[in-house]
Records
---
Amino acid sequence: MLEFHLSTIIFTIINLLVLYAVLRKVLFGKVNAVLEQRAQLVQQEIDAAQADNRQAQELKEQYEGKLQDAHQEAAKIVSDAQIRAQRVYEGKVAEAQSEAQRLRGEAQVQIATEREAMLRSARQEVASLALLAASKVAGRSMEADDDKAFVDEFLAEVGEQA
Amino acid sequence: MEAFKEMLLEELGTPTAFTIPLLGGVDVSQSVVVSWIVMAVLILASVCLTRNLKVENPGKVQVGLESTVEFLNGFVKTNIGEHWRPFAPWLGTVALYIGFANIIGIFGFAPPTKDVSVTAGLAILSMLLIYGSQFRYNGLVGGLKRFAEPMPLLLPINLMEVAIRPLALCMRLFGNVLGAFIIMEMLKFVAPILFPAVFSIYFDLFDGLIQTVVFVFLTTQFVGEGIKEEE
């Protein structure tokens, strides 16, 4: 029962070493390789995800910067346009005002001229009426030039008094 | 009763299966032949199970295989420390061999581990592993210094352990398997039908696996003691 057989001991040692050599290759080596590959894969995925994340962050910052630039640009354009519009508006208003002034001046001149003309014609009319009336009173025609001058003088006196 | 005694004694012996006619005849015992069967089964199973392993989307079998190997790796790592890598496959191999050798009684073979020569071979390998790694990873002087740890007073005990550890490993495994084997033989003699099957679950399966764990655990522990850096 308790006999040690050298041959069995040696066979056992050889058996174990052979089994170890085979299993290390066929079983543990393969499984560990797969485990390692998977660990590497996971690490790669994590690294890739982190790199992507970083890149996305950078892009975001870039875009935000660009967006800000664009905002500033737009604000500048708008303010430029406003300034230009203001200038144009002011120019137009000034032009319109001067035009209006001119038109008013012209109108006043015209009115004055017309009034003058009207007054003159009215005065002539009145003078001729007065002459007609006077001739009717005097019973004679007052066609002579000195008569007319007389009436005009008279009328001027009246005009001054009026 | 006498007949039973005869039969039991015959069963307990380590019969020679055949003799290789070399160097004046090398005896190949039955336990070695059964060991070869165990090895063949293990290698065949490994080849079959590790065919087309996939890194992505592993099948159920692969997941089981991977978690077993990972468990082994983790166990060896905790007990041996940073140099665990080369030890895991060896300890796994020993565990598979002893485990299958212990429970092969279920299939009607005599377990090879009931032969004290087989367990002696295993224990010698464990001893070589324990002290080999102690010197491999600490150097000659460092390895020798390890015998004076944790205190120089324990030097004689540590030196005695060089012989005691493998002897204990050898005898524990042998004794347990032999005991279980004797009880199973007696049960088979007393009540050949059905009755032994229930006890077989305990003596062949449970005790066999427990002894496997004990052997591998102690070997790992001893290797770790030899090379682990003190924190």
Note: The radius of gyration of chain B is 20 Å.
---
Amino acid sequence: MMTVNPCSGDLPGVFGETMPFLCQGAAVTLQSAAGGAALAIVIALVVGLMASSPLRTVRGVARVYMEFFRGTSVLVQLFWLFYAMPILTGYQMDKVFAGVLALGLNLGAYGSEVVRGALQAVPPSQREAAIALNFSPLQRMRYVILPQAFVEMIPPMNNLLIELLKATSLLSVITVADLAYEGRLLVNSGSDQLIVFALMLVIYFVFSYAITLVMRFVERRAARMVGRGKPRRRRATAAVEAAR
Amino acid sequence: MIWDWNWTLEILPQLLTQGLLVTVQATLGGAVLAFVLGLFVALLRRSRRAYISRPVGAIMEFIRSTPLLVQLFVLYYVLPDFGFKMTALTTGIIGLGVHYAAYTSEVYRAGIDGVPKGQWEAAIALNMPRPYTWISIVLPQAVRRALPALGNYVVAIFKESPQLSVITVVDVVGLARGVGSESFRYLEPMTIAGLFFLLIAIPASMLVRRMERRLDT
């Protein structure tokens, strides 16, 4: 079987002309999406836990953070971090770093809300049972609440990760050489714009779809681990059922 | 360098009149388009004919999975080649509207699904024509259910509208960028733009939450 490297320059016509550049951009897009996602998930867990804290001040801090970053748009936050903050602090961030930071802070705020909601959705009886079994607060969270909340978090997190992937295109505005940037560069240098834009959209779509597939897998695993959803079927039983 | 108040006061009126006007136009235009288009899409996706519902569903999935920015590029750079010449703002409104129609159609779908089955059965029992059932029984209830979520999307559209500045629309952020690059000072205009979004988006989402509670009961 012959496999075709979609990034090679030997592809016929416009594809060979454009795909190597688009792939470079796509790699940068993936890197910034991965960086942003890592930061966003950490922030979401920490701030989400803070938002469900019994202490009022801790909750307040989390609330302010969430409202602040959900109240302004990513693009403004990005501009502010990249253009305005250096004037205030005298520290010029690397543009990829500024981009990842803005994405992580913004999507992290949305993620915190997801985490908070998921923690709240765990039935109170679970918590009461853990208390009755003399679990410490930490054990309660670690062994009882979080695993169940985790299952609830996955579908909205999937949406947020796709939003994050889409938002990486904004980094092109501060001249990070991501997919959107490389695409525009190609168009400006005279490649067929219809084809370049179509390729860009398809690449973004493939990435989004990949995120959805991975998250569905994670969701099934997580659901199984807390005893929800279908247990993993052994091959043999599946064969028996098929024979019936 | 520190904050320059005199200059802030100098650029503030321009940002808050000219820029605000464009941002509001883009938001409202995009929202209205998204609401109308989303409803049609939701109805088309419920069609029993698979050759209608499937492709519409696939297109919407595609729109939802790709960045608004690239879609705006397509509208702005490619459409003129086919003879559609529009101003940047109109292009932006169409982009926002179509992109968010993919989201609002899901909201309507959930709203329609949430109408109890008994309503449909009652309409059939009363021998109501199907279009009448939709228009005066199902949709009013579905839209009512959908309102809070739609309100959230107005806020979302408002927050996404700065992306139009990339296709040369001079909204609050576009203006702030312009002012910033002219004077090499981004601190004040960008901070104003950020505060402006905060000051509108936070009360707006509080309003939506209130609406949610009221419609819940």
Note: Chain A has a mean pLDDT of 87.
---
Amino acid sequence: MTSFLRRHASLLVIGAIASLGAAALWQRDGGPAVGRALYHAWELFLFIAPSLLAGMLLAAALRQLMSPGALARWMGAESGWFGLAVATLAGMLTPGGPMAAFPLVLVLAGAGADRGALVAYITSWTLNGFQRVLVYEAPLLGPGFAILRVVITLPMPLLAGWIARRLPIAWEPPK
Amino acid sequence: MTPGQIFLWVLAVIALGFCLRRGPAAVHKAGVETGKNLIKILPMFAVALPMAAFLAELIPADAAVAWIGPDSGFAGVLLGSVAGGLMPGGPFVTFPLVLAFAKAGAGVPQMVALVSGWCVFAVHRIITWEYPVLGWRFVALRLLSSMLLPVSAGLIAELVVEVLPIALGSR
């Protein structure tokens, strides 16, 4: 039972918030309002479904093609801005959620990437990962907004990596 | 289909083509992986999208204007960055919620800060993934290095929007 709860914690929390929201809306505006909201949710799903499927296919295909270890030799402590740029690009191309990206940091570290490159990599993945931008941000918030935010934050992982190389925090991959 | 979706499909077909050059087994693996991921993510959609829709109805139309509206300036950018970091869940939960904020009158620079803050700080992701996989030293290193990014992104967006007006939302 506890393992079931832990595995599905976010599902349960979001489900609980959804039920509370439905109850509050029913109370305030009546049943039809709840129905209308559900219909909006369904429309949103239909709107996002084609990108979702394409994004997942692309992510799965990329995972068959890329070997992160090979990239890491460009990302060592002496690699300078070039290494940070490689890490930034790799981060943008990394598909999938945290369950895929954080273990990849360990792979890259094991293959020689230094802490600056790793910080640049993970920052770039989270800010500008292609899946997040193309599947969710551009369709939902508009291409204009997505392009604005991506262009502004594009160089920021480089900066974060540059700072990370200068911070006196040594990091070793956990064994 | 929108141009963005067509672009994504073209990319997916190209990548699958490269997989096919490696052999049918790679394409099969990619297909199986996609199916597994879909099964994992669909239940999340089934609760997250209705949740966002209910909250969007419940949030008054101008609720966000005072806090993170277009005229909220630096305070709104700062608030957006912090609030973004506290939003739970992956993009399928957060973006519908962010959409609700946008409809409730949030400004573009403040939304840039909110989305960037969610990406960079993501407290729930630190607790569930980053700390267990990489340890607290990495978390500290990364947070110190990227602490100022969401606020800077919001402030730069403020400057850009002054010369280049950008509308939120697709519909």
Note: Chain A is about 80% helix and 0% strand.
---
Amino acid sequence: MRMKIMTSISLPDRSRATRPSGRLAKGWWDRLPLLPALVFVILVTQLPFVITLYYSLQRWNLVSTNAPRFVWFRNFVNAATDATFLKAVVNTGVMTFSIVVASVLVGGLLAAGLNREFRGRTIARTLAITPFFIMPVAAALFWKTGIFDPTFGILGWITDEIGIGRINWISQYPKLTIIIITTWQWSAFALLILLAGMQSFPTEVAEAAEVDGASRLYVFRRLMLPHLRPFIELTGLLVAMYVLENFAAIAILTNGGPAYSTTNLSYYVYLEAFSAFDLGRASAFGMISLAIAMALTIPMLRVVSGIFKEGGRA
Amino acid sequence: MNRRRSSIIDPLLTVLTWVGTLVMFTPIAWMILTSFKTEEDAVSYPPKLFFSPTLDHYRRIFENDFASFATVSILVTVISTAIVIVLAVPAAFALTVRPVPKWRDVLFFFISTKMMPIAAGIVPIYLVARAFDLLNTSTVLVIVYTSMNLPLAIWMIRSFMVEIPRDVFDAVAVDGAGRIREMVQIIVPLIKPGLASTALLCAIFAWNEFFLAVNLTTTVSTLPVFLQKFLSFGKLYTAQVAAVATLINIPVVIAGWLAQKSLTRGLTFGAVK
């Protein structure tokens, strides 16, 4: 609504009367404030994709003596038969999906708990969202030495105490460790958004329903959940968007191993480019991960674009 | 009857909420606690909750090249955030207050750039940086972090501008203020708190970024790259790691707490307020 008002504002512009007029000049004068940011973003983030596309059609290995050679789609065809690459695709899918679901669940439960009146609620909220701010490299490093470590970590001690024995998390359950630590950070993020969603729920509706004898569970399932739906979708989209590129946790905790079991697409591109120095292959993998990311997030963006268009619901 | 049942459930839910909250915070609390232990206490079995605290590890942080990495981190974060704000305010202005034709497409273009994995562009970014002799400099990090944060900042600042009441612009029209004056003297003061939260959020992202830093820089780099080097030191350094990790997270956690009010809006590109 408000945005419509904004677009219809048109002001008499006296300052421009003296300027060399003409519709073209005016159009560019209007666009001028936008251009620096637009040009900057296109040059630094979009142009590289085009260049990557070009590189991906070449055989180009920095350690080989051969000059770069145009090979058309050879790199892409090779990717389809590269077992490690396919593994990376599956890993990316499994880890991203688990992290998104777990973050929404954990964040949602915490938000439901914090969306109530009790003493110390502000403190609890502040503590619960803090993991999101922690530098991922720092988090991964401390979890590795202080928490997951089988001999010195606190988790090893806990599992020992309950009688499961000391688990070497990182080598026995590498994927799970990555999922746990990333979920820890992103559930704090989910909590923030879902709590805002819950707080925008009209309390009168819930009260009216309770007066009518509806149980709390009923109110939650039939009224709160439908209200929360766009917020859950938005959370899913944003978590997926960031977690698809999960890198720090993998680089610090597992280096993509053991046996590539935690290598996701971003990490595999990194390995190909900066360990194997195969720029042609790395570029092709990069292009494929770009395609996958777009295929996943653009439809989701369409689903939630309603929220963006309204410019906020709360 | 309804009330009696909820009087049992409510305290229970509160307790559960606290348990959940503490589970979330325990790793951080444990990290802070560990940073004050001696290395022997840090790896003791069973883990010690009570011990005689030491500040040794905090003193030792500055023994190696921590200071130079911290300087780069601060420089890169501050400069890239400043550029982001300077570029994002006019852009948001041209997309909100005086919208250009197809402003909606432009906005969605900006958000869609955030959906593209940066790994897909890292090879050309690396090669171009090498061609311009920018590898291993703070300049290259400033450039990539600026473009990384710009879309988010534009969306966030735009969401604050949308909230400015219409009367303000009518007043401006009567006043006959020029465009730049309108932006700098009227709009910016109105959205100052919003700009502050936007800056804090961009600063957090720049401070924590790792992928670009580790690929484009090595010795002249930011703190995440410094931290990564601890990996090669082995297990005896748990407490030292905890001390460094605690210290470098203080600025972001404070920034996050300060920005709490507008955080949701920023993280959702202004979609949720």
Note: Chain B touches chain A through 116 residues (CB under 8 Å).
